[in-house]
Amino acid sequence: MNEIKKEEEKSLNFLEEIVEEDLGAGRYKTILTRFPPEPNGYLHIGHSKSICLNFGLAQKYGGKTNLRFDDTNPVTEDVEYVDSIKADIRWLGFEWANELYASDYFGQLYQFAVKLIEKGLAYVDDSSSEQIAQLKGTPTEPGKDSPYRSRSIAENLQLFADMQAGKYKDGEKVLRAKIDMSAPNMHMRDPILYRIKHAHHHRTGDAWCIYPMYDFAHGQSDSIEHITHSICTLEFVPHRPLYDWFIDKLEIFPSHQYEFARLNLSYTVMSKRKLLQLVNDRHVTGWDDPRMPTIAGLRRRGYTPESIRTFAEKIGVQKRDNLIEVGLLEFCIREHLNRIALRRMVVFDPVKVVLTNYTEDEEILKSENNPEDPETTYREIPFSRELYIEREDFMEVPPKKFFRLSPGQKVRLKSAYIIQCDEVIKDAAGNITELRCSYLPGSKSGGENANIKVQATIHWVSIRHAVTAEVRLYDRLFKVENPASEEGDFKDYINPDSLQVLPAAYAEPALSHAKFDERYQFLRKGYFTLDKDSSEDKMIFNRTVTLRDNWAKEQKKG
Ligand code: ATP
Ligand code: MG
């Protein structure tokens, strides 16, 4: 109930204001938005902002959202991407009203072009792309008319039909809108509508050898579908007059374009082209490498859809480009995992502890699966005479504020007894091989010595009962905040230490039943999830995120 109230109290973002105003004025009965990915790569966290926005807006106001593949560029597109995009949107928790393809509108778009020619508003230009660029002028200088601009309607109709029929080679001719070569907005200086490309399309095959440009395809596709609110990123602001011009001249359904700031995230890159380079040059193992900012990568890393939706909600909708701290995304996943993750004990770098006064064979102790869960359940943990603790939890000569185990100092073993170190055993080279300790009978929870105060609690596993697992620890993929804005190649800024593999960590046996859809907190180590590379006889865990934000601290040290 409180949650809902909070929702209502929040002020509207500018898009919600626009929608409420449109609905209030009766401009539309219901709203229809769309998410229009180009199937030339996997979706990244930036797309999830657009997805949450488009689907979220429709949900909030009882409307619908189309999924439209913007597949007008035959060369870079692929079915693998189409499938991954659908899987990712569903995983984020959204379902589209219709699955559509801009390529399905090629016939209709062609007719639109013919209509513009018939109205004297489009012409076929034989100029080379260099000549076209030259005549375009600059933002401060008007352009000049192409020598082909005054062709007759009949001639244009014939030439355009010939372009379509495959009479010409790539680049020999283009179709352009006839608008204004001295318009202050460069996009209005006779933009290109169609180019010749003898290329195979992943859906239309070889049916077409001319393909519409983005500006001509996108707005008209919106209009064909009767999209009410077409939401895109800020770089399309200067395209909006053209978007409106086509709708006006073609006299078709008036969709409207609105723009918001794209999401940029620190310590990564956010462009499919760049992400593809990382994949192709093998800086990562694939689009779903857990270090990638792709939805597939984040999912494999252990992110939850809820955390990503919360993140999108928290950053809100801005009208100015900015760089969002990746720490905010990590905050969102930590908060969610704290609520849902099962607690487990795993020792990464073990040192052996022998409890010299422990005479039982074994004992089964209990520990909470998740103290945050109001109906918390318990798991069983076997305890025995020989344990592993984390090597770094012991110091032979401790500095002042070291409260963990050291000779003569007591520490609590989580959900078990208090122990004290009596003797340190070393090998010939002086490495510690074993800690001889004694445990304090009655010091486990409920016992007569349970209330004895110790300064620290550490995690442990019973050696005999431990299961092993590979653990993969990740760091930021880039060494700098904004690699795309640095000088030179963004790949020069890749962090060479972004992956650390621990081949064998020792886990309490409860972890041997790990499931892909469960999340774990390895006590004091972070949040983890089972990786898809795991097999029947080998578990592999990815660290999703550490328990605290250590990065800022490390940076200062560095
Ligand atoms: P990229 O540059 O990564 O290839 P794109 O804009 O070319 O991105 P599209 O597939 O065309 O990718 O994008 C589909 C939708 O997602 C578009 O509406 C686009 O505006 C939006 N989008 C893409 N990147 C971001 C981002 N970083 N933040 C918010 N929205 C984005
Ligand atoms: Mg694009």
Question: Could you walk me through the main structural features you see in this protein, from its secondary elements to its overall organization?
Answer:
The chain has 558 residues and is α/β, with parallel strands linked by helices. The chain has 3 domains: 14-260, 3-Layer(aba) Sandwich (Rossmann fold), CATH 3.40.50.620; 265-342 and 469-557, Ribosomal Protein L25, Chain P; 346-459, Ribosomal Protein L25, Chain P (Beta Barrel). 28% of the residues lie in helices and 23% in strands. The chain is built from 14 helices and 27 strands. Strands 12-25-26-27-23-24-13 form a 7-stranded mixed sheet, covered by helices on one side. A 7-stranded mixed sheet has the order 21-18-19-20-14-17-22, with no helix packed on it. A hairpin with a 4-residue loop joins strand 18 and strand 19 (418-426). Helix 3 crosses helix 12 (305-315), helix 8 (214-225) packs across helix 9 and helix 12 (305-315) packs across helix 13. The protein starts with a helix and ends with a helix. The site of adenosine-5'-triphosphate has 15 residues, from helix 3 and strand 8.
Q: How does the major sheet shape up?
A: 7 strands, mixed
CATH superfamily caption of the largest domain: HUPs
Unreliable stretches (pLDDT < 50, length at least 5) are 1-5
CATH topology of the largest domain: Rossmann fold
Shape: elongated
- The portion of residues forming beta strands comes to 15-25%
List bound small molecules.
adenosine-5'-triphosphate, magnesium ion
* Percent helix range: 25-40%
Count of all domains: 3
* Helical run tally: 14
CATH class of the largest domain: Alpha Beta
Rg from Cα:
31 Å
SSE class:
alpha/beta
- The overall pLDDT average reads 95
Number of strands: 27
Question: What is the first-to-last residue Cα distance?
Answer: 47 Å
**Architecture (CATH level 2) name of the largest domain:** 3-Layer(aba) Sandwich
Instruction: Write down the oligomeric state.
Output: single chain
Largest beta sheet: strand ordering: 12-25-26-27-23-24-13
